[in-house]
Design brief:
Blueprint lengths: L7 H20 L7 H23 L23 E3 L2 E3 L1 H12 L29 H13 L5 E4 L2 E4 L2 H9 L3 H12 L6
Antiparallel strand pairs: 1-2, 3-4
Helix pairs in contact: 1-2, 2-3
Length: about 190
């Protein structure tokens, strides 16, 4: 996303899309939707909310530097998203909704965070039919990029996003993470 090119009408459209998703989550029982549709909903809501707030705060382009509502809370931890009367932050969507309820760690690659060292935003919105394929593509792209992993002599440095996902997917930190990375990596990473 090239935030410097986003005009006011695009920013307004981002806000309207986020609000439409929030409204959908308030009058549709998300838990009764098919699992793939639920996952697509949460990823899309998270991503549009993050993109919207980065666009509104531009030229501040790193979400960790964006403070919401004149507070000291960073964007990722500010509960500015409301679904069915529940206020939540982007981090809440990841760590309280998606990570505990989806056992496949490839879900971590759906969440755009706007930071260097995080997954890219996908060119298509997630939906029930494409969510698995897009997550697979994003996992391969991220793990094989310098944003995801980087060899440093005999050591492999990894993105900080894995620390957040650690309690959900990598309880045996070294071996579990290595197995996961190897399942998506090419020979340059391994």
């Amino acid at each position: 996303v090239i935030f410097s090119y986003l005009e006011d009408d695009v920013k307004t459209a981002l806000t309207e899309y986020r609000e439409d998703l929030e409204d959908t989550g308030s009058f549709v029982d998300i838990a009764k939707m098919a699992r793939n549709e639920q996952l697509a909903f949460w990823i899309n809501l998270h991503n549009v909310a993050v993109i919207e707030q980065i666009a509104l705060a531009y030229p501040v382009s790193q979400p960790s530097r964006i403070k919401m509502d004149n507070s000291s809370q960073p964007l990722d931890e500010t509960p500015f998203i409301t679904v069915a009367g529940v206020n939540m932050s982007p981090k809440d969507i990841r760590t309280k909704i998606v990570f505990p309820n989806w056992k496949d760690p490839k879900v971590i690659y759906g969440f755009f965070r706007g930071e260097i060292g995080g997954p890219s935003i996908m060119g298509d919105a997630f939906n029930g039919g494409n969510v698995s394929e897009l997550l697979e593509d994003s996992a391969v792209e991220f793990i094989n990029s310098l944003r995801g992993t980087q060899k440093n002599g005999s050591r492999l440095d990894v993105s900080e996003i894995y620390q957040e996902a650690r309690p959900f997917y990598f309880q045996h930190w070294g071996p579990d993470l290595k197995t996961h990375l190897l399942s998506y990596s090419n020979t340059q990473v391994t």
